[in-house]
Amino acid sequence: MRNILLTAVFACSLMTPAFAATAPTIITPSQVHWTAGTGPMTGAQVAVLSGDPYKAGPYTMRLRIPDGAKFAPHFHGAVENVTVLQGTLLVGLGDKMDPAKMIALPAGSFVSVPAGAHHYASAKGDTIIQIHGMGPSSMTMVKM
User: Fold this and answer.
1) What is the DSSP letter of 96?
2) Could you give the domains of the chain?
3) How far does CA 38 lie from the centroid of its chain?
């Protein structure tokens, strides 16, 4: 009985550091650190809330997109999960931007885009979206 108890205590002691090392990430709106987007994100502002989109593992980030900004047809190497927090995100599928085929996603909307799906987007009004997924994240522009 004593060996079982010692084994249980030892096993719990091995697990404790993992639990002790994790703490919640809490970010209030005033603490969001926005930086200028680069490459295909030029014109937008980016804020990484957790993880690192360029490394393996989960990440969460936000994009602040000015009214009228466009993201030309592109695709991602992994699933892209997007929640619209503010404004309206217009999205379409395919290799060529076609405003007539875009769907308006108002604040509160969610879309999950499969890896490799060619899509495009634009913002109507100042728009903030939150993206989460498993890194490393990639964005490849569609060649026309």
Assistant:
1) S
2) 26-141 (2.60.120.10)
3) 16
- Assign 50 to helix, strand or coil: strand
What string of H, E and C letters represents the secondary structure of 31-45?
Answer: HCCCEECCHHHCCCE
List the structure tokens of 42: 């030029």
Helix, strand, coil % in the chain, rounded to nearest 5: 20, 45, 35
Helix (H) or strand (E) holding 20: helix 2-21
Report whether 106 contacts 55 (CB < 8 A). no
Average pLDDT over residues 68-90: 97
pTM: 0.81
How many residues belong to the chain?
Answer: 144
The per-residue pLDDT for 41 is 84
Owner of token pair 């927090």: 85
